[in-house]
Amino acid sequence: MKHNLQGLQVVWFKRDLRITDHEPLLEAAKRGPVLPLYIFEPALWQQPDMSGRHYAFLKASLTSLDNALRALGQPLVYRTGDAVAVLQQLKENYGIAALWSHQETWNGWTYTRDIAVGKWCKSNNIPWHESRQFGVVRRMKSRDGWAEAWDALMDQPLWEAPASLQPLDIEAGRIPAATSLHILPDPCPLLQPGGRENGILELQSFFEERGEDYQQGMSSPSRAVSACSRISPHLAFGTLSMREVHRATEKEKRTWQGAPPAMRGNWLRALQAFSGRLRWHCHFIQKLEDEPTLEFDNLHQAYNGLREAGKGSVHYEAWASGQTGFPMVDACMRALQATGWINFRMRAMLMSFASYHLWLHWRDTGLHLARLFVDYEPGIHYSQCQMQSGTTGINTIRIYNPIKQGIDHDSDAAFIKRWVPELADVSAAQIHTPASLQGLPVAYPQPIVEEASARRMAADKIYSIRQDAGHAEVAQRIVQKHESRKAGLNRSRRVQRPKTKKRHRGQLELPFE
What's the rounded Cα separation, in Å, for the pair 248 and 20? Predict the structure, then answer.
């Protein structure tokens, strides 16, 4: 039975699960009754980058959003199915005057789905209003001026929540069980809680207590747990908006600038570094917006066919399960499995070790990490996967030595011993010399490769490709399309013999932190 609601405005929530700084919701409420909609899409949850921990965070965030909408007068409406089919059913039952949402730069499946939704809207004469949520620009012809445009957008005032919403006589539905969407069990006992309230608490505690140690602590897998902001899942699911985080950060910076120098400590440096990371967040997502194939294909085609081994290989299974015989690698993988988060340096090390030492294809290892990262953001994720695998053709090759990383960032092996309990009674010196573990009576595998020789072999292979004719010309085109002009990182001029000790200024500590 059709119950036509005059001027019904459908607000489609995707990864923007909040009512504050939500332009589509506010603008829709000015034009008629609002149907706030979330669609559970079974096909999306069967994609190889999705996991149960993502769904657990999503459910908590949706519950928080629903409570906020109920306080305005109209609960969140849940529907399950193909997006076009759901919208068609709503149109037939109630009529739709307009569809509202934020722009989304996400995985390839959602890109295809949005094309289908756009065609449906056009064929039904329903306007689809999409607002910018991040500093990403669609159909951008040049990166010139991008950084300045980011600043201008983020400095704009926040969008207020509507004062109220008209109650609708529409069945709200409910959040389906993970099993009904065929989501596999995904134990994550230390999963960070979702929901806007928890995002606000994380940001507040970062500004009030934890953040002063940001620069010094972000590289340590132990210290980073508190030193980093931990808001990345909330940005990924949109329980916090990038603009409100940016504006809050700038306010904190002004506060500390006005404080006596003796009281400032490391706060200004920490906040300045954090502010830069917010910009790099959008910078990487812009890469995927400009080049959607980045999720699937090597950015520089000279590396096609370079690596073939992946899921199912002995090396892959050892790496994915935290059984490589390299304690720092295994501790990081096991910590990630249990918590859904680890700091950026260790994420980079995991990908580097898989790509170089084990010579695995970044696509399979990238998908495994995507499923584990609760803050998985495809634009950031696949850019980093390719950067840490050497397939962009424009970044300095950086191969992390996992033994050195352990010594530098877990010298007493406390982190390793927590996550690799087999080694709890082994000395730190022996732990940081994996070969010495082979003669000990511990149930721990021997190193899966010889570290130094594997690293040299990988570097030689990558470097030889960079010497091929035509490589530099293609690399220059990639730089022109994707380089951040403000940062000035023209990496095509840095094609050189790989070094593993010198830190390259283009390898930032951000986007996952």
Answer: 14
Spatial contact of 394 and 379, defined as CB atoms under 8 Å apart: no
Nearest alpha carbon to residue 231 among 223, 243, 239: 239
User: Cα separation of 256 and 234, whole Å?
Assistant: 25
CA dihedral 198, 218, 489, 106 (to 10 degrees): -30
pLDDT of residue 402: 97
Please state, in angstroms and as integers, the Cα–Cα distance from residue 382 to each residue in 49, 62, 481, following that order.
Answer: 11, 26, 17
Residue 114 carries which side chain, given as an amino acid letter? Answer: D
pLDDT at 5: 75
Distance of alpha carbon 29 from alpha carbon 10, whole angstroms: 10
Cβ atoms within 10 Å of 424's Cβ, excluding its own: 11
Dist CA 105 CA 45 (whole Å)? 17
Residues of the chain below pLDDT 70: 1-4, 484-513
Q: What is the DSSP letter of 240?
A: S
Q: What is the pLDDT of residues 401-442, one digit of tens each?
A: 999 999 999 999 999 999 999 999 999 999 999 988 888 888
DSSP 353: I
Closest CA relative to residue 87, chosen from 125, 117, 51: 117
Sequence-distant (6+) residues with CB within 8 A of 300 are: 391, 392, 393, 394, 471, 474, 475, 478
d(CA 378, CA 388): 15
Please, are residues 173 and 78 in contact by the beta-carbon 8 Å criterion?
Answer: yes
Length of the chain: 513
Sheet holding 9-13: strands in order across? 77-80, 34-40, 9-13, 98-102, 128-131
Question: Would you say the C-alpha torsion 345, 346, 351, 353 has a positive or negative sign?
Answer: positive
* Of 79, 89, 94, 82, the residue nearest 37 (C-alpha): 79
Q: Spell out the residues 6+ positions from residue 469 whose beta carbon is closer than 8 angstroms to its own.
A: none
Q: What is the CB neighbour count within 10 angstroms for residue 285?
A: 22
* pTM for the structure as a whole: 0.92
Residue from 104, 345, 309 nearest 224 by CA: 345
Other residues' Cβ atoms within 10 Å of the Cβ of residue 100: 27
Cβ–Cβ < 8 Å for 220, 414: no
State how far the Cα of 479 lies from the Cα of 303, in Å rounded to an integer.
17
277 in Cβ contact with 284 (< 8 Å): no
> Which residue pairs from 335-338 have beta carbons closer than 8 angstroms and sit at least 24 positions apart in sequence?
335/221, 335/415, 335/418, 335/419, 336/369, 336/372, 336/373, 337/188, 337/372, 338/188, 338/189, 338/190, 338/419
